[in-house]
Amino acid sequence: MSEILKEIGLTQSEIKVYLALLDLGDSTRSNIVKKSRISGSKVYDVLAKLKDKGLISIYSKNKVQHFKPVNPNQILNYIEGKKLEINKIEKDAEKILPNLLLKFNSSITEQEVELLSGLKGLEIIFKEQIELLNEGETCYVIGGTKGISEEAVIAFFQKVHLRRESKKINTKMLYNLQQKKLVQKSYSPKKYLHTETRFIKHTTPVAINIYKNKTIIIIFGESITAIRITSKDVAKSFKEYFNLLWNQEK
After folding, report:
1. How far apart are CA 5 and CA 11, in angstroms?
2. Is there a single domain that holds both residue 234 and residue 123?
3. Looking at the domain assignment, is residue 84 inside a domain?
4. 3-class DSSP state of 164
């Protein structure tokens, strides 16, 4: 229960006071302090924040302040209010995004090398890949021979590939012959209509993605390391290497 309340935006102190009030019902400050174990100097501030969130009410009785929880259904109204706030922030962000992108793009040099690690790093890279590629454009993939049997890695790349498919991005993939059975199972041509796969004898400990002016080199080891190179010349060179291997296995 506490974890869910934390996820919707309540602090640890607010959770303690709110749950204490649910147990106590109509109560005074001193009883809330005892039940929640929140200091008396802090509890008024916490109660005021819970009131602002619409989760409790405050009133005076015989010149003494009383506090009581409102119907817990109010939590859903509070969440709805948070959604509206997020939607407004999203719209405001969309308004300033063109200027931010202009500044970002102007800061990128003709050649740039970035290092990212872990699946989180890959998520950043491949989210941008899918955003950059348009329908009908092609991504070239040389699959690494290490890491392919890791379930988390397979699941990640299948998810990426589904997104490429849904956007109708073409993908040409080269894999080692040893991986043929697994790859054909994971990337069935009946399911992936915009994907073409070929198999080569060549092995590599890394996976390579080439698209537009980007080259991604992914190293599988105890941890995942990805090198993203932004360079037209580098991308062109890797694409030529890809085509050489691709045409050998025609």
Report:
1. 8
2. yes
3. no
4. helix
Strands 206-211 and 214-220: antiparallel
| Boundaries of domain holding 25 | 2-72
Q: What is the CATH number of the domain that holds 187?
A: 3.30.870.10
- Which residues lie across from 214 on neighbouring strands? 211, 230
Is 215 within a domain? yes
Cα–Cα distance for residue pair 90/214, rounded to 1 Å: 29
Asked if residue 139 and residue 39 are part of one domain, the reply reads no
What one-character DSSP code corresponds to residue 133?
P
pTM metric for this prediction = 0.56
The bridge status of strand 206-211 relative to strand 138-142 is antiparallel
Among 26, 54, 72, the domain boundary falls at: 72
Q: What is the pLDDT along the chain (250 residues), one digit of tens a residue?
A: 888 888 888 899 998 999 998 999 888 888 889 888 888 889 989 999 999 988 989 988 888 889 988 988 888 988 888 888 888 888 888 888 888 777 766 655 567 888 998 888 899 999 999 999 999 999 999 886 654 556 777 788 888 888 999 999 999 988 888 778 877 777 776 777 888 888 888 777 788 999 999 999 998 877 889 999 999 889 999 999 999 888 876 5
Please give the full DSSP string across 37-81, using - where no structure is assigned.
---HHHHHHHHHHHHHTTSEEEEEETTEEEEEE--TTHHHHHHHH
Residue 77 lies in a domain: no
Count of domains forming the chain: 2
Beta-strand relationship, 138-142 and 214-220: unpaired
Assess if residue 115 is contained within a domain: yes
* 10 vs 14: CA distance, rounded Å: 6
- Domain match, 58 and 140 both: no
